[in-house]
Design goal:
It contains 11 helices and no strands. The chain is mainly alpha-helical. It folds into 2 domains: 150 residues, Orthogonal Bundle (Globin-like); 127 residues. The protein starts with a helix and ends with a helix. The C terminus is likely disordered.
């Protein structure tokens, strides 16, 4: 183990200069453009922390358990800086490369006996980085999913289909029925009682948008129904008022309902894709 110990001691005692070489390299490498604008002084501690932890990860009997915490933190820091996963992994590969490129390393394994130890050290190091790639990619996956959940928070409330709001799903029909009855009553009141054709129709967008969010393409029927009723009511109660405005309003109802329905469907498909991936991750724990 003397060769391996020399390697680890070299890394431990020269963590900062190796980290600085890595930081300079990663800031100009064409495969890591997201690092180019990051100050060197912010990158060097990342490398130092890795090389300082190298000895513990290298000699432990359970490298996966020991390295998981460090590489999870590595993933969280890089994800917070909006660095793509492929660049974060390539930066890690460069960390490994700079261990072997460090000038003093060339003088360590000079005897025939130590050549085999060099191979053993290399195999052990590669194993450690294999764990790193696995843990970092898994943590990135979890962080991406968490961000999606956070960003979709308001949408999930409106959809009434998030895990916490699952019990509210049966109330969609009740809520929609009440909204439609209210929309019909409001239309009747303004057309039949007041004889007016005013801006009240903007309130009809509420059931139209909710219907498209809840039932997607099927929800377009809400827009069709309310638009049709608006035209029918105008035809019956506002015979002396120009028909053009309400035709335009009914057409806009249909356009808004269709657009929101397709957007809702796209969001649901994207969410299903990301939900499936973390499920596989959680299954491995």
């Amino acid at each position: 183990m003397s060769g391996s110990l020399k390697l680890v001691n070299l890394i431990e005692t020269h963590a900062e200069p190796i980290a600085r070489q890595w930081a300079r390299d990663v800031r100009k490498n064409p495969r890591t453009p997201s690092y180019h604008d990051l100050p060197e002084e912010k990158l060097v501690p990342v490398g130092i922390r890795f090389y300082d932890n190298f000895k513990q990860m290298f000699f432990t009997d359970k490298p996966a358990d020991v390295s998981q915490q460090y590489f999870a933190r590595y993933a969280e820091e890089h994800h917070a800086r909006n660095i793509p996963l492929n660049e974060a992994l390539y930066a890690l590969i460069m960390m490994r490369r700079h261990i072997w490129l460090y000038a003093e390393f060339q003088t360590i394994f000079i005897s025939a006996v130590e050549q085999k130890q060099a191979v053993d050290s290399l195999v052990r190091t590669i194993l450690m980085f294999d764990y790193a790639i696995y843990f970092i990619s898994r943590r990135y996956q979890e962080l991406i999913y968490a961000r999606i959940e956070k960003n979709l928070g308001v949408v999930n409330v409106l959809r009434m289909e998030s895990p916490r709001g699952a019990k509210l799903v049966p109330y969609r029909g009740i809520i929609m029925t009440a909204l439609i009855i209210g929309a019909i009553g409001l239309t009747y009141y303004y057309h039949a009682v007041l004889g007016l054709n005013v801006i009240f129709t903007h309130l009809l967008y509420i059931p139209i948008v909710l219907g498209a969010i809840w039932w997607k393409k099927k929800g377009i029927l809400v827009a069709v129904g309310l638009g049709g009723f608006l035209l029918f009511s105008h035809l019956i109660f506002l015979k002396g008022v120009p028909f053009t405005d309400d035709i335009i309003r009914a057409a806009i109802f249909l356009v808004i309902g269709t657009v929101v329905a397709f957007l809702s469907e796209g969001v649901s498909r994207a969410e299903e894709m990301y939900r499936a991936q973390p499920a596989a991750v959680n299954h491995e724990h």
